[in-house]
Structure formats: structure tokens, C-alpha cells
Amino acid sequence: MYSYHGRIRQRIKNGELRGIIKGDGEFAIILLFNTYPFTRPIRERALYRYEAELSAYPDLRQNESPKDADEVDAPKDGDNG
């Protein structure tokens, strides 16, 4: 079994990260990926684990709301894959 943060860091290094959303409530950020699972929430206390990986992505957006992430993940009508 892989650790939650270890697997996410591996996915970032593999180039799967496509966006960062500033979280609200208990999550500091929500990472958006181009493969399943598409969203991974990160709490404030765990952000230090991602400093090195996320510094390679200074241009990713961090101003969207979590509501926008739900719209990204939702399948469209008639979309078969």
C-alpha cells in the first residue's frame, strides 16, 4: 500500500498535475490531475511535503474555487469516455 502523500508526489513528478485550486475549510489546496483520481485535497499541515515539487509549477492557477473543480470532474452528457 502506498502512502497518500507519497503517491501524490510521485504523480506530480510524473507530470500528471494540471492545476492547483486554493481550498477553503479544512483543505489548503486541491491538486488537479489529468488522470483518475482527478482531485486530491491537501491540508495545511501537509503542505511542507510538496514545496519542492510545487516550486516547479509557479504558473499553475491558485485562485479558483473548489466548486470549479467539481465542474471539471463531472462527465458530460453523452460522454462515453
Provide a descriptive summary of the structure in words.
This protein has 81 residues and is an alpha+beta fold. It has a domain of 54 residues. 27% of the residues lie in helices and 22% in strands. The chain contains 3 helices and 3 strands, in the order H-E-E-E-H-H. The mean pLDDT is 82.
Radius of gyration: 13 Å
Helical content band = 25-40%
Element string (H = helix, E = strand)? HEEEHH
Largest beta-sheet characterization: 3 strands, antiparallel
Q: Termini distance? A: 28 Å
Number of strands: 3
Class of secondary structure makeup:
alpha+beta
> Can you count the helices?
3
Q: Mean pLDDT score, rounded? A: 82
Topology:
Layout: H1 4-13, E1 17-22, E2 27-33, E3 39-43, H2 51-54, H3 66-73
Antiparallel strand pairs: 1-2, 2-3
What's this, in brief?
The protein is of the alpha+beta class and 81 residues long.
Features:
about 80 residues; alpha+beta; single chain; 3-stranded antiparallel β-sheet; about 25% helix
